[in-house]
Protein backbone atom coordinates (compact mmCIF):
# COMPACT_ATOMS: atom_id res chain seq x y z
CA UNK A 1 0.00 0.00 0.00
CA UNK A 2 2.84 2.41 0.84
CA UNK A 3 4.52 1.66 -2.50
CA UNK A 4 1.29 2.33 -4.36
CA UNK A 5 0.84 5.66 -2.56
CA UNK A 6 4.42 6.62 -3.35
CA UNK A 7 3.99 5.79 -7.05
CA UNK A 8 0.83 7.88 -7.24
CA UNK A 9 2.59 10.76 -5.46
CA UNK A 10 5.55 10.63 -7.84
CA UNK A 11 3.18 10.55 -10.81
CA UNK A 12 1.37 13.69 -9.65
CA UNK A 13 4.63 15.49 -8.91
CA UNK A 14 5.82 14.70 -12.44
CA UNK A 15 2.52 15.84 -13.86
CA UNK A 16 2.78 19.17 -12.04
CA UNK A 17 6.39 19.62 -13.16
CA UNK A 18 5.41 18.88 -16.74
CA UNK A 19 2.61 21.42 -16.62
CA UNK A 20 4.87 24.07 -15.13
CA UNK A 21 7.77 23.45 -17.49
CA UNK A 22 5.67 23.17 -20.64
CA UNK A 23 5.89 25.71 -23.44
CA UNK A 24 5.18 29.22 -22.31
CA UNK A 25 2.19 30.60 -24.18
CA UNK A 26 2.52 34.02 -22.59
CA UNK A 27 4.40 36.05 -25.14
CA UNK A 28 3.48 39.46 -23.79
CA UNK A 29 0.98 40.22 -26.55
CA UNK A 30 -2.07 39.16 -24.56
CA UNK A 31 -4.67 41.09 -22.64
CA UNK A 32 -3.34 43.74 -20.27
CA UNK A 33 -4.71 46.82 -18.55
CA UNK A 34 -5.30 49.42 -21.22
CA UNK A 35 -5.27 46.92 -24.10
CA UNK A 36 -8.44 48.42 -25.61
CA UNK A 37 -7.58 52.08 -24.90
CA UNK A 38 -7.47 52.96 -28.59
CA UNK A 39 -10.00 50.57 -30.14
CA UNK A 40 -12.62 50.72 -27.38
CA UNK A 41 -11.56 53.25 -24.74
CA UNK A 42 -14.53 52.68 -22.43
CA UNK A 43 -14.41 48.87 -22.44
CA UNK A 44 -12.72 48.43 -19.07
CA UNK A 45 -14.86 51.12 -17.42
CA UNK A 46 -18.05 49.59 -18.79
CA UNK A 47 -16.99 46.13 -17.64
CA UNK A 48 -16.11 47.39 -14.16
CA UNK A 49 -19.41 49.26 -13.74
CA UNK A 50 -21.43 46.24 -14.87
CA UNK A 51 -19.49 43.87 -12.62
CA UNK A 52 -19.75 46.27 -9.67
CA UNK A 53 -23.54 46.33 -10.08
CA UNK A 54 -23.74 42.52 -10.16
CA UNK A 55 -21.37 42.06 -7.20
CA UNK A 56 -23.35 44.57 -5.12
CA UNK A 57 -26.38 42.29 -5.48
CA UNK A 58 -24.52 39.01 -4.90
CA UNK A 59 -20.96 39.04 -3.62
CA UNK A 60 -20.56 35.31 -4.31
CA UNK A 61 -20.55 36.12 -8.02
CA UNK A 62 -16.89 37.10 -7.65
CA UNK A 63 -15.93 33.50 -6.99
CA UNK A 64 -18.35 32.28 -9.65
CA UNK A 65 -16.81 34.53 -12.32
CA UNK A 66 -13.28 33.54 -11.36
CA UNK A 67 -14.30 29.87 -11.56
CA UNK A 68 -15.98 30.44 -14.91
CA UNK A 69 -12.76 31.99 -16.24
CA UNK A 70 -10.70 29.11 -14.83
CA UNK A 71 -12.92 26.47 -16.44
CA UNK A 72 -12.67 28.28 -19.75
CA UNK A 73 -8.87 28.54 -19.67
CA UNK A 74 -7.97 25.19 -18.12
CA UNK A 75 -8.35 22.81 -21.06
CA UNK A 76 -7.40 24.55 -24.32
CA UNK A 77 -6.63 28.10 -23.31
CA UNK A 78 -8.81 31.12 -22.83
CA UNK A 79 -11.08 31.17 -25.88
CA UNK A 80 -14.53 31.63 -24.26
CA UNK A 81 -15.70 28.19 -25.38
CA UNK A 82 -17.36 27.67 -22.00
CA UNK A 83 -19.83 30.40 -22.99
CA UNK A 84 -21.04 28.69 -26.16
CA UNK A 85 -24.39 26.94 -26.34
CA UNK A 86 -24.63 23.45 -27.83
CA UNK A 87 -24.85 23.10 -31.59
CA UNK A 88 -27.06 20.53 -33.28
CA UNK A 89 -24.15 18.19 -33.94
CA UNK A 90 -22.65 18.04 -30.46
CA UNK A 91 -22.52 19.05 -26.84
CA UNK A 92 -21.26 22.36 -25.57
CA UNK A 93 -18.40 22.70 -23.12
CA UNK A 94 -20.80 24.30 -20.66
CA UNK A 95 -22.81 21.05 -20.68
CA UNK A 96 -19.87 18.90 -19.57
CA UNK A 97 -20.30 17.48 -16.07
CA UNK A 98 -17.49 19.55 -14.45
CA UNK A 99 -19.23 22.69 -15.70
CA UNK A 100 -22.82 21.97 -14.61
CA UNK A 101 -22.54 24.15 -11.53
CA UNK A 102 -20.92 27.12 -13.24
CA UNK A 103 -22.81 30.36 -12.95
CA UNK A 104 -22.35 33.97 -13.90
CA UNK A 105 -23.22 33.53 -17.57
CA UNK A 106 -25.86 36.25 -17.26
CA UNK A 107 -23.29 38.70 -15.89
CA UNK A 108 -20.95 38.01 -18.81
CA UNK A 109 -23.90 38.53 -21.19
CA UNK A 110 -24.65 41.87 -19.49
CA UNK A 111 -21.02 43.01 -19.82
CA UNK A 112 -20.88 41.92 -23.47
CA UNK A 113 -24.14 43.72 -24.28
CA UNK A 114 -22.99 46.92 -22.59
CA UNK A 115 -19.62 46.92 -24.35
CA UNK A 116 -21.20 46.07 -27.72
CA UNK A 117 -23.37 49.21 -27.46
CA UNK A 118 -20.25 51.34 -27.14
CA UNK A 119 -18.00 49.58 -29.67
CA UNK A 120 -19.56 46.66 -31.51
CA UNK A 121 -17.39 43.76 -32.60
CA UNK A 122 -14.19 44.96 -30.94
CA UNK A 123 -13.83 43.22 -27.57
CA UNK A 124 -13.74 39.42 -27.66
CA UNK A 125 -15.84 37.26 -25.37
CA UNK A 126 -12.65 35.70 -23.98
CA UNK A 127 -11.36 39.14 -23.01
CA UNK A 128 -14.71 40.06 -21.47
CA UNK A 129 -14.57 36.91 -19.37
CA UNK A 130 -11.03 37.79 -18.25
CA UNK A 131 -11.98 41.39 -17.44
CA UNK A 132 -15.02 40.21 -15.49
CA UNK A 133 -13.01 37.74 -13.42
CA UNK A 134 -10.30 40.33 -12.74
CA UNK A 135 -12.73 43.08 -11.75
CA UNK A 136 -14.91 40.80 -9.63
CA UNK A 137 -11.95 39.59 -7.59
CA UNK A 138 -10.59 43.12 -7.25
CA UNK A 139 -13.95 44.41 -6.02
CA UNK A 140 -14.21 41.89 -3.19
CA UNK A 141 -10.57 42.23 -2.16
CA UNK A 142 -10.70 45.91 -1.22
UniProtKB/TrEMBL annotation:
Reactions listed under catalytic activity: 2 a phenolic donor + H2O2 = 2 a phenolic radical donor + 2 H2O
Enzyme class: oxidoreductase
Signal peptide from the UniProt entry: 1-28
Residue stretches making up the Plant heme peroxidase family profile domain: 30-142
Name of this chain's protein: peroxidase
Function statement: Removal of H(2)O(2), oxidation of toxic reductants, biosynthesis and degradation of lignin, suberization, auxin catabolism, response to environmental stresses such as wounding, pathogen attack and oxidative stress. These functions might be dependent on each isozyme/isoform in each plant tissue.
UniProt site (Transition state stabilizer): 67
Gene3D superfamilies the UniProt entry points to: 1.10.520.10
Molecular-function GO terms, alphabetical: heme binding; lactoperoxidase activity; metal ion binding
GO BP of this protein: response to oxidative stress
Disulfide bonds: 40-119, 73-78
Binding of Ca(2+), residues: 72, 75, 77, 81, 93
Keyword tags: Calcium, Disulfide bond, Glycoprotein, Heme, Iron, Metal-binding, Oxidoreductase, Peroxidase, Signal
EC number, UniProt record: 1.11.1.7
Active-site positions on this chain: 71
Family listed: Belongs to the peroxidase family.
Cofactor note: Binds 2 calcium ions per subunit.
Cofactor: heme b; Ca(2+)
